[in-house]
Every structure is written in C-alpha cells, then in structure tokens.
TrEMBL record:
It comes from Lentzea tibetensis. It is found in: Cytoplasm. Residues 205-272 form the tRNA-specific 2-thiouridylase MnmA-like central domain. Its EC number is 2.8.1.13. This is tRNA-specific 2-thiouridylase MnmA. It holds the Pfam family tRNA_Me_trans_C.
Length: 360
C-alpha cells in the first residue's frame, strides 16, 4: 500500500512510520505545520508542532530513507481547532482540542488530501488497535492502558478508520522507546507532549482573555443563591474547578467550593460542595456509533482522555446517546466527549462516541 506517515517529530510517530516501512509499504513522511507563527506554539522539544519537531521528523525520515514533506495546515488548524476551542469556552462548554485535532485535521483534512494524492492510508503513532472481525472494522483500546488514545479517536467515522493505520496499538510506550533507540532514532528519549500546543505557557485563562471580550458575571452559591463574587467571563472557569475562583469568604461549613455549572447568557457561575459534582446521567449529541444501540447496552463510559471511567448503560434515543452511569463521576461538563466501550479480553471495544450536551 501507499502509506502517508504523519510524523509529528515525536518518538511514537517515528516508530510507527518505521514499522510501516518494515511491513513493506511504500511510505512517505509528512509533518504538519500548524501555525503561521511557529514561535507562538510550545517550544522545548516536546513532540508535536514546532520547528524543532519538524527537524526531528525530517531526521527520522532521512534515517528510514523515505520521502519527507512539510504541509501547511495552519489556516485549517486555526479555524477548526483554535477558534473552535475559544468558541466552546465562550459558550460555557469544555472542549478537548486534541480530540478535535485528530478528528478535523489528521483524519479529515490530512486524510482527504492523502486520498486525493493516491495514498491508501494514513499512519500515525496513536496508541489504539484496529482489527477486522467477521468483515467488521473494530476500534479497540491499546495494549498500553496508560497511553491508550482510543478515546480521542472514537469520534472518527468508519470510512476514516478504514484508511487509518495504528502500528503501535499492541506495544507499550516503554517498548516503543527501546525500539526507537535500537533503530538509532534521535527522538528515542524525547519527552511526551502533554500540554495544549497553541497555549505554550499553559495559562488557558490568559489565552482566552486575550481572545474574548470581558463579559462580567456573578459567582453564585448554588444552595443559597448568595452572590459570592464577580468575574470577567464564564470562559475563566470549567466545571469541577476548585482553585482560582476569587471567593474571599469560606463556605459556612468550611469546605471548599467547586464550579458546578456555567450559564453563558446570564454570565452566572454556580458553585457548591463537591458532592454536587456527581453525575449519573449523560445526554450526548452527534453520536458516532459502531454497533446498534437502539436498546440498552451494558458498557463502560469514559469522559476524559485518561481516567473518568465508570460502568454504565448506553442507548441511542431520538438521535442522542443517553448514558446512565452505574457509579457517579465528577467534573463531567458539556462540550466533553463521552466514549462507551464493551469490556473484552481482546481489548475493550469502542461502541460509540458523542459530545456531551447535558448532565444530571
């Protein structure tokens, strides 16, 4: 097959590309330039989207002896990831920019261009497994639970996954680093990328404040209705947040307060006790389903990229994914994705994914 290897400059994508070469595929490497001003992205050789990363990706491709290109996706990234991130926070929701980047950049924009150029598949260093069982393409968790990325891939369509390759799905991160060193890849010990690449200093509040006009509102005690303070906009908060609330007086019971809900129209931020964060019901829109969910299905629901899992029952009702959690989860917010899995000895199978619109 003709394979386009998306090479971020990190160790995972480098080893994934090398494995595609070893498998006999005709591989071409490509690095995505995601900013017209690369200096505004994270620096320090973290493995994602800086000039340093582009150089690391090129060196890896040269070592493998494969063609290598840099494609400018800066405009698309700004529109589909950065501007979406800002708009979601302004609307009082909590987005996942890495999920959006996978969905709209790597497996929409990049894949569309790859197919148009005659490539059969896009290869990435994601930790997830693809398998065809009885003619059905399945997406499963990776062998490395700690690095599993099936959650951020669960919103991909069947068509997109049919042109995807995840060579690292059966390998642990430690083994990937050992393999990289054995291959002579200079990125073998390169640190992983964790932060949001377009917020280099990690200060999300400051980033949003520079993008959004102030829209003052009130901090309100959810139980008593008392006004506890004022703020410059709901974008300064996320559900479950405890620190940085700007509340001077402690609660009557002396316990900490948490953000319970955001109301962007009125500008009200409701705060209260930790137990009020418990969620047992989730309604999610724009579902991508891999199995028939017209009836209740026992599953495990996940609401964050790492952690945030609970046994659940999921069902598709009137075009929405309804999830009843057997055990409550905290800090579940509209805008996040919920992915539901069927536990399996072969690796948990992704059943569906959708965007959370309501919790209860």
């Amino acid at each position: 097959m003709r394979v386009l290897a998306a090479m971020s400059g990190g160790v995972d994508s480098a080893v994934a590309a090398a494995r595609a070469v070893d498998a006999g595929h005709d591989v071409t490497g490509v690095h995505l330039a995601l900013s017209a001003k690369p200096g505004t992205l994270r620096t320090g050789a973290r493995g994602c989207c800086t000039i340093e990363d582009a150089h690391d990706a090129r060196r890896a491709a040269d070592l493998m002896g494969i063609p290598f290109y840099v494609w400018d996706f800066a405009e698309r990234f700004t529109e589909d990831v950065v501007e979406d991130f800002v708009a979601e926070y302004a609307a009082g929701r909590t987005p996942n920019p890495c999920l959006r980047c996978n969905e709209r950049i790597k497996f929409e924009a990049l894949l569309d261009k790859a197919i148009a150029l005659g490539f059969d598949a896009v290869c990435t260093g994601h930790y997830a497994r693809l398998a065809t069982v009885d003619g059905v393409l399945e997406l499963r968790r990776s062998a490395d639970d700690g690095k599993d990325q099936s959650y951020v891939l669960a919103s991909l369509t069947h068509e997109q996954l049919s042109h995807a390759m995840f060579p690292l799905g059966d390998t642990t991160k430690d083994d990937v680093r050992v393999e990289a060193a054995q291959r002579g890849l200079s990125v073998a010990k390169k640190p992983d990328s964790h932060d949001i690449c377009f917020i280099p200093d990690g200060d999300t509040q400051k980033f949003l404040a520079n993008k959004l006009d102030a829209k003052p509102g009130l901090l309100v005690d959810d139980e008593t209705g008392a006004v506890l303070g004022r703020h410059a906009g709901v974008h300064e908060f996320t559900v479950g947040q405890r620190k940085g609330l700007g509340i001077d007086a402690p609660a009557p019971d002396g316990r900490p307060r948490y953000v319970l809900s955001l109301e962007p129209v009125s500008g009200t931020v409701r705060v209260g006790a930790a137990e009020k964060l418990a969620v047992t019901e989730i309604v999610a829109t724009s579902p991508v389903c891999r199995v028939n969910l017209d009836g209740p299905v026992e599953c495990v629901a996940q609401v964050r990229a790492h952690g945030g899992c609970a046994p659940a029952v999921a069902e598709l009702v009137d075009g929405e994914l309804r999830v009843h959690l057997r055990e409550p989860l905290r800090g579940v917010a509209p805008g996040q994705a919920v992915a539901v899995y069927r536990p399996d000895s072969a690796g948990d199978l992704v059943l569906a994914s959708a965007t959370i619109s309501e919790t209860g």
